[in-house]
Specification:
By secondary structure, the protein is mainly α. The chain has a domain of 49 residues. Helices cover 60% and strands 0% of the residues. The chain has three helices and no strands. Helix 2 packs across helix 3. It is elongated, with a radius of gyration of 18 Å.
Amino acid sequence: MPNRLEARRTSGPHRRRRKNLYVDQPKIERVKALLGTSTETEAIDRALDLAEDWVVFGREVGEGLTLLVGRGGFTDRFPTRRRR
């Protein structure tokens, strides 16, 4: 059974569009090296995928911790933070 992220990525047509952006060139070069990509487009595409994965992961961890705390037997030693 696919998780939410896999389901979202595989649903619907993938549309590519040309974008003209002002981007920090040294940052693109660092990301290309870190991800081992051969093109800037691939580096940006993979970096966006990673950013999306990170946000989904954070939400799923938060939901899991909320469920864990709600079941009892767990002491929350960290104060609740409000989002800005």
